[in-house]
Amino acid sequence: MKVLVTGATGQLGSALLRQLKNTDYQVKITSRRKPENVNFEWVYCDFLTGEGLEEAVGNIDVVIHAATSPRKDSDIIDVLGFKRFLDMTQHIKHFIYPSIVGIEDIPMKYYRNKYQAEELLKNSTVPHTIVRATQFHSFVENIFLSKRLFKRYLVPGDIKIQSVDVDEFAAHLIQTINVGPQGKTEDFAGPEILTLREMAELKIKVNNESSKVASFPFPGKLYRALLDGKNTNDLRKVGKVTFEEFLIAKGN
User: What are 3's strand-pairing partners?
Assistant: First the structure.
Protein backbone atom coordinates (compact mmCIF):
# COMPACT_ATOMS: atom_id res chain seq x y z
CA MET A 1 0.00 0.00 0.00
CA LYS A 2 1.35 3.41 -0.96
CA VAL A 3 0.82 6.22 1.56
CA LEU A 4 1.22 9.93 0.90
CA VAL A 5 1.99 12.27 3.81
CA THR A 6 1.47 15.94 3.04
CA GLY A 7 3.08 18.62 5.18
CA ALA A 8 6.02 16.34 5.88
CA THR A 9 8.17 18.99 7.58
CA GLY A 10 5.51 20.15 10.04
CA GLN A 11 5.24 18.95 13.62
CA LEU A 12 2.65 16.26 12.88
CA GLY A 13 4.22 15.36 9.54
CA SER A 14 7.62 14.86 11.18
CA ALA A 15 6.07 12.63 13.84
CA LEU A 16 4.37 10.55 11.14
CA LEU A 17 7.65 10.08 9.26
CA ARG A 18 9.49 8.95 12.40
CA GLN A 19 6.98 6.13 12.80
CA LEU A 20 6.28 5.24 9.17
CA LYS A 21 9.95 4.38 8.60
CA ASN A 22 9.35 1.32 10.80
CA THR A 23 6.43 0.04 8.72
CA ASP A 24 6.11 -1.85 5.44
CA TYR A 25 4.16 0.91 3.70
CA GLN A 26 5.53 2.53 0.58
CA VAL A 27 5.70 6.17 1.63
CA LYS A 28 5.75 9.32 -0.48
CA ILE A 29 6.04 12.70 1.20
CA THR A 30 5.38 16.27 0.13
CA SER A 31 6.47 19.65 1.42
CA ARG A 32 7.90 22.93 0.15
CA ARG A 33 11.24 22.06 1.76
CA LYS A 34 12.81 18.61 1.55
CA PRO A 35 13.27 17.07 5.02
CA GLU A 36 16.80 16.13 5.99
CA ASN A 37 17.87 12.54 6.66
CA VAL A 38 14.67 11.04 5.24
CA ASN A 39 14.83 8.26 2.67
CA PHE A 40 11.22 8.43 1.49
CA GLU A 41 10.26 9.51 -2.01
CA TRP A 42 9.80 13.29 -1.89
CA VAL A 43 7.80 15.60 -4.16
CA TYR A 44 7.85 19.38 -3.98
CA CYS A 45 4.31 20.54 -3.29
CA ASP A 46 2.79 23.96 -2.60
CA PHE A 47 -0.87 24.18 -1.60
CA LEU A 48 -0.73 27.93 -2.01
CA THR A 49 -0.05 27.74 -5.76
CA GLY A 50 -1.08 24.17 -6.53
CA GLU A 51 2.37 23.28 -7.83
CA GLY A 52 3.20 19.59 -7.43
CA LEU A 53 -0.23 18.45 -6.20
CA GLU A 54 -1.05 16.24 -9.17
CA GLU A 55 2.37 14.60 -9.17
CA ALA A 56 2.18 14.02 -5.41
CA VAL A 57 -1.11 12.14 -5.46
CA GLY A 58 -0.35 9.93 -8.46
CA ASN A 59 -0.46 6.15 -7.76
CA ILE A 60 -1.37 6.72 -4.12
CA ASP A 61 -3.70 4.49 -2.07
CA VAL A 62 -3.89 6.46 1.19
CA VAL A 63 -3.40 10.14 2.00
CA ILE A 64 -2.61 11.46 5.48
CA HIS A 65 -3.15 15.18 5.04
CA ALA A 66 -0.92 16.88 7.59
CA ALA A 67 -0.39 20.03 5.48
CA THR A 68 -2.01 23.07 7.06
CA SER A 69 -1.40 26.75 7.71
CA PRO A 70 -2.58 28.67 10.78
CA ARG A 71 -1.14 31.85 9.25
CA LYS A 72 -2.96 34.54 7.26
CA ASP A 73 -3.00 32.38 4.10
CA SER A 74 -5.03 29.65 5.82
CA ASP A 75 -8.13 30.36 3.71
CA ILE A 76 -6.11 29.57 0.58
CA ILE A 77 -4.14 26.57 1.84
CA ASP A 78 -6.72 24.96 4.13
CA VAL A 79 -9.79 25.59 1.99
CA LEU A 80 -9.10 26.52 -1.65
CA GLY A 81 -5.87 24.54 -1.90
CA PHE A 82 -7.45 21.66 -0.03
CA LYS A 83 -10.43 21.57 -2.41
CA ARG A 84 -8.12 21.59 -5.43
CA PHE A 85 -6.16 18.72 -3.92
CA LEU A 86 -9.31 16.81 -2.97
CA ASP A 87 -10.53 16.95 -6.58
CA MET A 88 -7.35 15.09 -7.56
CA THR A 89 -7.85 12.25 -5.08
CA GLN A 90 -10.94 10.56 -6.54
CA HIS A 91 -8.92 7.40 -7.18
CA ILE A 92 -7.59 6.84 -3.66
CA LYS A 93 -8.88 4.29 -1.17
CA HIS A 94 -8.62 6.34 2.03
CA PHE A 95 -8.15 10.04 2.80
CA ILE A 96 -7.19 10.63 6.46
CA TYR A 97 -7.76 14.19 7.67
CA PRO A 98 -6.33 15.26 11.05
CA SER A 99 -8.43 18.05 12.53
CA ILE A 100 -8.92 19.88 15.84
CA VAL A 101 -11.38 19.39 18.70
CA GLY A 102 -14.04 22.08 19.02
CA ILE A 103 -13.45 23.95 15.78
CA GLU A 104 -17.14 24.61 15.16
CA ASP A 105 -17.46 26.31 18.57
CA ILE A 106 -14.25 28.37 18.74
CA PRO A 107 -14.35 31.71 16.87
CA MET A 108 -10.98 31.70 15.12
CA LYS A 109 -10.45 32.09 11.37
CA TYR A 110 -8.08 29.12 11.20
CA TYR A 111 -10.58 26.90 12.98
CA ARG A 112 -13.39 28.03 10.68
CA ASN A 113 -11.22 27.08 7.72
CA LYS A 114 -10.46 23.64 9.17
CA TYR A 115 -14.18 23.09 9.73
CA GLN A 116 -14.91 24.14 6.15
CA ALA A 117 -12.32 21.63 4.94
CA GLU A 118 -14.03 18.92 7.01
CA GLU A 119 -17.33 19.75 5.32
CA LEU A 120 -15.73 19.62 1.86
CA LEU A 121 -14.37 16.16 2.63
CA LYS A 122 -17.63 14.91 4.15
CA ASN A 123 -19.58 16.08 1.11
CA SER A 124 -17.15 14.53 -1.37
CA THR A 125 -17.15 11.01 -2.80
CA VAL A 126 -13.63 10.33 -1.49
CA PRO A 127 -13.52 7.53 1.14
CA HIS A 128 -12.27 9.28 4.25
CA THR A 129 -11.65 9.42 7.98
CA ILE A 130 -11.70 12.67 9.96
CA VAL A 131 -9.83 12.48 13.27
CA ARG A 132 -9.86 15.46 15.61
CA ALA A 133 -7.19 15.94 18.29
CA THR A 134 -6.71 18.44 21.07
CA GLN A 135 -3.72 20.80 21.03
CA PHE A 136 -0.26 19.25 21.10
CA HIS A 137 1.85 19.66 24.25
CA SER A 138 4.59 21.50 22.36
CA PHE A 139 2.09 23.86 20.74
CA VAL A 140 0.77 24.95 24.13
CA GLU A 141 4.27 25.47 25.50
CA ASN A 142 5.48 27.37 22.43
CA ILE A 143 2.47 29.67 22.22
CA PHE A 144 1.81 30.40 25.91
CA LEU A 145 4.85 29.34 27.96
CA SER A 146 7.92 30.03 25.85
CA LYS A 147 8.72 33.51 27.16
CA ARG A 148 8.76 35.15 30.57
CA LEU A 149 8.50 38.83 31.42
CA PHE A 150 10.31 39.87 34.58
CA LYS A 151 10.40 36.21 35.68
CA ARG A 152 6.66 35.86 35.22
CA TYR A 153 4.58 33.80 32.85
CA LEU A 154 1.75 36.07 31.73
CA VAL A 155 -1.12 33.80 30.75
CA PRO A 156 -4.91 33.79 30.46
CA GLY A 157 -4.67 31.35 33.32
CA ASP A 158 -8.24 30.10 33.65
CA ILE A 159 -8.66 28.78 30.11
CA LYS A 160 -8.82 24.99 29.86
CA ILE A 161 -6.31 22.90 27.92
CA GLN A 162 -6.29 19.14 27.27
CA SER A 163 -3.01 18.82 25.42
CA VAL A 164 -1.89 15.58 23.82
CA ASP A 165 1.40 14.05 22.68
CA VAL A 166 1.99 14.48 18.93
CA ASP A 167 3.67 11.08 18.61
CA GLU A 168 0.67 9.35 20.17
CA PHE A 169 -1.65 11.07 17.72
CA ALA A 170 0.62 10.18 14.79
CA ALA A 171 0.55 6.52 15.84
CA HIS A 172 -3.23 6.67 16.00
CA LEU A 173 -3.42 8.06 12.46
CA ILE A 174 -1.13 5.31 11.15
CA GLN A 175 -3.31 2.66 12.83
CA THR A 176 -6.28 4.22 11.04
CA ILE A 177 -4.78 3.27 7.67
CA ASN A 178 -5.64 -0.41 8.05
CA VAL A 179 -8.99 0.20 9.73
CA GLY A 180 -10.27 1.82 6.55
CA PRO A 181 -12.56 4.82 5.96
CA GLN A 182 -14.75 5.62 8.99
CA GLY A 183 -16.16 9.06 8.26
CA LYS A 184 -15.86 11.36 11.26
CA THR A 185 -14.46 9.41 14.23
CA GLU A 186 -14.22 9.96 17.97
CA ASP A 187 -11.87 12.67 19.21
CA PHE A 188 -8.30 11.91 20.28
CA ALA A 189 -7.76 14.01 23.41
CA GLY A 190 -5.05 14.28 26.05
CA PRO A 191 -5.11 12.48 29.40
CA GLU A 192 -6.01 15.46 31.59
CA ILE A 193 -7.69 18.85 31.50
CA LEU A 194 -5.66 21.62 33.12
CA THR A 195 -5.92 25.36 33.30
CA LEU A 196 -3.15 27.28 31.62
CA ARG A 197 -2.10 28.54 35.06
CA GLU A 198 -1.66 24.94 36.23
CA MET A 199 0.42 24.16 33.14
CA ALA A 200 2.67 27.15 33.80
CA GLU A 201 3.10 26.03 37.41
CA LEU A 202 4.08 22.55 36.21
CA LYS A 203 6.75 24.04 33.97
CA ILE A 204 8.10 26.06 36.89
CA LYS A 205 8.22 22.92 39.05
CA VAL A 206 9.80 20.65 36.43
CA ASN A 207 12.46 23.20 35.47
CA ASN A 208 13.04 24.26 39.10
CA GLU A 209 12.46 27.90 38.15
CA SER A 210 11.98 30.86 40.46
CA SER A 211 9.31 32.24 38.13
CA LYS A 212 5.79 33.23 39.07
CA VAL A 213 2.51 33.10 37.17
CA ALA A 214 0.48 36.22 36.45
CA SER A 215 -2.98 35.47 35.16
CA PHE A 216 -5.22 37.78 33.19
CA PRO A 217 -8.54 37.52 31.33
CA PHE A 218 -9.17 38.90 27.88
CA PRO A 219 -12.48 39.98 26.39
CA GLY A 220 -14.49 38.34 23.67
CA LYS A 221 -16.07 35.13 22.46
CA LEU A 222 -12.75 33.33 21.99
CA TYR A 223 -11.83 33.64 25.66
CA ARG A 224 -15.31 32.53 26.68
CA ALA A 225 -15.12 29.46 24.43
CA LEU A 226 -11.78 28.43 25.96
CA LEU A 227 -13.05 29.10 29.48
CA ASP A 228 -15.97 26.80 28.70
CA GLY A 229 -13.59 24.08 27.49
CA LYS A 230 -14.85 23.94 23.91
CA ASN A 231 -11.33 22.82 22.94
CA THR A 232 -11.51 19.80 25.26
CA ASN A 233 -13.38 16.48 25.44
CA ASP A 234 -13.60 15.00 28.94
CA LEU A 235 -15.04 11.74 27.56
CA ARG A 236 -12.12 11.07 25.22
CA LYS A 237 -9.01 11.03 27.41
CA VAL A 238 -7.21 8.73 24.99
CA GLY A 239 -3.64 9.98 25.23
CA LYS A 240 -1.32 8.64 27.92
CA VAL A 241 1.59 11.12 28.01
CA THR A 242 0.82 14.01 30.36
CA PHE A 243 2.03 17.59 29.94
CA GLU A 244 4.34 17.13 32.92
CA GLU A 245 5.86 14.00 31.37
CA PHE A 246 6.37 15.90 28.13
CA LEU A 247 8.24 18.65 29.99
CA ILE A 248 10.41 16.12 31.86
CA ALA A 249 11.29 14.27 28.62
CA LYS A 250 12.13 17.55 26.90
CA GLY A 251 14.52 18.49 29.67
CA ASN A 252 16.42 15.20 29.52
Answer: 27, 62
